[in-house]
Amino acid sequence: MCGIPSGNLLRQGAASGPYDFGMRRTLPTTPSPGLPIDTTLLKPGLRLAVGLSGGADSVGLLRALKERSVELGLVLHAAHLHHGLRGAEADGDLEFARGLAAELGLPFHEARVDTAAEARASGESGKATESIEEAARRLRYGWFRQLLASGEVEAVATAHTRDDQAETVLAKFLRGAWTEGLSGIHPAVEFPEGRILRPLLGATRAQVEAYLNSLGQRWREDSSNRHLTFTRNRIRHELLPLLEGWNPRLREHLAQMAALARDEEAWWEGEVARIAPQLLLPGRPVRGGGRAAGDGLALDVTRLAVLPLALQRRLLRYAAEHLSVAVDFPSTEALRLLALTGRAGQRLELAEGLRAERTPRELRMEVLPVAAGGTTEEATPEYFVAIPGEVTAAAFGLRLRIDVDSSAALEADDESQVGGRSQGGVPPRAKAHVDSVASAARLKSCPDTRQSISAARFDRVATLRNWRAGDRVRLRYSSGPRKVKEVLERLRVTGSCRRVWPVLELDGHIVWMRGVELDPAPGIRIVATSLEEAGAESFQTGVSVDG
User: Are 74 and 64 in contact (CB under 8 A)?
Assistant: First the structure.
């Protein structure tokens, strides 16, 4: 535990005088009792670094593993990270760890970080503010991963005990964790660079100290562990002892709860991964079948409704996690109720920019950009354009017109001679559709945006919208589709211009994009004109005729 020394609370058995390098030593009086180590995590030949803070737990783990290194076939290293806290006391920890590694004949790895500066930088950068403990943990595990990536070791062992497990589970419970939170500290954590192992989870802190005392091995005491400002210290020194008055075996039971939760989560993880592809759909549906590429996800609400409640919640959380958003219980319930009882068109705005929208068949979820102040930036409006028709898109600074190619128009005129057409040659169904689309466009656009959607000969509507990650276009004379992102990079479009760059989507395909010439869309002609009065620039596609 890292922090600023304060207070006079001491752990039972620790020295009560002023801190004087904090090294304790007791002469051995009985044979070494040994420590319960989970050897299933260790394989012969493993190059293993022990995270050595200098405290009793890490010293105990190092001594126990060294004692059995030949038997287990381990190649041991010791690793110490100086967190830049506690001044001379932390310097003494480093010297002690370095000396112990030398005494045991082990390779020693060390590094220094400025934890306080990192915590401040996190808040200044607009990210969620980190506490000193959170920053220290992030830096410590970041360094462990660097050590693994170096190839000098294959795994790092940390000295978490059953007492640490109990404290962690209780802390997660107090914060309102899901089941995976109650699984506490896992025996092994996989990273791309290697594994973090916790072989001492079956041992208690009392067993560790008894083992060290039997060896006459001294260790360091971290004075910040007495500071009751830190939540973990309050749980360790105040809450757990109080609760043990009700149940003396509480730590054991909390550790058992963690094991149960961990095994339950392992099963659920596989089950959700199996079922999710049946309900989760990428992007948005398009006319005629298929789906358009996009950032968001959608869930089939009909299939979701028949699933057990527990599975509904897990699938919603799974979808949010795929959008890099962690949702709490109230947010999960709000999403579930919108999916099962919401009306088409209803929206829900949640933390971290998560937006959910109910459609007749789906619950669509996407993440909107979040401004520096923590508010969600207003999404660029979408404009619907009937074919033929015209729209003024103030958000993009352009006027866009779509004309039907002459040959297609002649075919439409021929068809208009047949009965069933309303006055003016517009079928009633098409006119009703266009009217409804125009109404929706007025609702979705900015208040100052003026739109004009003409009556259509054909029941086809295109969408003028901002580009999205995953969008692809087919450039004219190009061999295959390319990502819009790559095209913008080639055009050297950056900054705010890149954030707002219009494309026109028709039947799930992008048929126009500002600044580039795409393969012509069959049967239509697209003309885009800048709204700037001076030097208005016109972009247009070439004419293409069906058949």
Answer: no
DSSP code at position 238: I
Planar angle of CA 360, 362, 364, nearest 5 degrees: 120
Residue 141, sorted as left (phi over 0), alpha (psi -120 to 50) or beta, turns out to be: alpha
Query: Could you give the percent of the chain with pLDDT greater than 70?
Result: 75
Q: Give the C-alpha separation, 295 to 287, whole Å.
A: 19
- The pLDDT tens digits for 301-326 are 999 999 999 999 999 999 999 888 88
CB within 8 A of 332, min separation 6: which ones? 313, 316, 317
Q: Decide: pTM greater than 0.70.
A: no
Pairing of the two strands 291-300 and 347-349: unpaired
DSSP β-bridge partners for residue 392 = 399
d(CA 522, CA 34): 79
pLDDT confidence of residue 290 = 67
Q: In whole angstroms, how far apart are CA 8 and each of 19, 189, 209, 225? A: 11, 35, 21, 10
Cα–Cα dist 27/340, whole Å:
68
CB-based contacts of 198, cutoff 8 Å, min separation 6? 38, 41, 157, 158, 159, 160, 185, 186, 187, 188
Return d(Cα 215, Cα 103) in angstroms, integer: 14
d(CA 50, CA 466): 51
Q: Higher pLDDT residue, 106 or 443?
A: 106
| pLDDT at position 541 | 42
The whole-angstrom separation of Cα 177 and Cα 261 is 11
